[in-house]
What we know:
Helix 4 runs parallel beside helix 11, helix 12 packs parallel to helix 14 and helix 13 packs across helix 14. The mean pLDDT is 95. The protein folds into 2 domains: 137 residues, Alpha-Beta Complex (Aspartate Aminotransferase, domain 1), CATH 3.90.1150.10; 235 residues, Aspartate Aminotransferase, domain 2, CATH 3.40.640.10. The longest helix is centred in the C-terminal third of the chain and has 23 residues. With 401 residues, it is an alpha/beta fold. The termini are far apart. A hairpin with a 5-residue loop joins strand 4 and strand 5. The site of pyridoxal-5'-phosphate (PLP) has 13 residues, from helix 5.
Amino acid sequence: MSDEPTPLGSRRETLTPSRRMRDGVQRSGARRMMDLAWSIPDAIHLEIGEPDFGAPPHVVDAAIEAMRGGRMGYPPTAGLPELRERLVSKLAGVNAIDTTVELVTVTNGGCQGLYNVFSVLLDEGDVVAIPDPGWPNYRSMIGLNGGRCEPYRLVANDDYRPDFERLEQLGHSGCRAVVLNNPSNPLGTVMEPEVIAEVVDVARRHNMWVVSDECYDELGHDAIPLSPASLPDSEHVISVFSFSKTHAMTGWRLGYVVAPDSLAELVARVQEPLVMGINAAAQFGGIAALEESSHVEMMRDVYARRCARVVDQFRTAGIDVATPAGAFYLWMDIRDAGVDDRAFIESLLEEEHVAGAPGSSFGTAGIGCVRFSLAAADDVLVDAAQRIVRHLDRVRLDAVT
Length: 401
Ligand code: PLP
């Protein structure tokens, strides 16, 4: 296929999809494993970040009431005013972000919030620094918006702190934005406030935007992580949040973006041609979720307890893993098993019926690691961990014989 643009007036020789689509969008490794796992009826699903809790009943009731009450016309593009007002209070109380209704845009999940932001920020060929390992969708979203990704490492033997030398280097060479994701998917780590402040400072010095993905914000196990937009001099920070994980509302597709004055109107404006507005019932559900939100703390405590228990189980079996500090992801280095991470994950599914995600699908820094989502019931996790240990033992044995 030719990548040259076809001049107006000349005839295209072939019908092709866009170069952005061809080069920019890759399937996520976790989603690929999910498709494979669906063909195994008794598979244990630890491959994607899906909370095992349902949305809280009062949230469901609020959405049903809105539908029954006929409040289902086109909502305002940037979101229902009442929801945006409540988000301003949530951002102040939970994230220490001082903002106003005009600066908050309700989006179709954190996903579309991030997409809006990249659409607003990027020109063709602009470079964006993304975490490695990191959530693979950044790459696709940035590619679809004409940008180019340059990974920066989260360094395993430095508590997964960003490689600051690399960030400085990218800043010097005209990088447009840095993506920060805290708590981290896939690592389950939480960055220290001084590390976040340092990233914000590097970005400020080099005129880069910070795109702060805080979709797991309230799932910091010990404390809610520092929001970069709460720091002084953070006019270059755009923050993206979601109801998906923190309120167990993945299928509702509800998220929001807080942007500085210079960008907020554009973040909402770009939404008009994309989706016009966000599902009204989901927004009424979101209002109820913020009005009474004790479920967030309850679920966070359950995730933290489960993570600690599974880590204990692995350590007792002689497998050294770090206790996740946020979200519900367990990151495991399996390099000493002498097998490729994709091969390990595929054989684990085939032989033990446990679905996980290969670390290499999160970037080159993930090669030789695997990720398990621990958002499953306690007994399921105990069973899954036993199977993973058994499989690791078998693979290790095969490698030496
Ligand atoms: N950011 C990260 C790091 C994620 O893991 C996800 C979902 O898995 C999202 C953003 C977007 O989630 P949603 O679109 O459901 O809000």
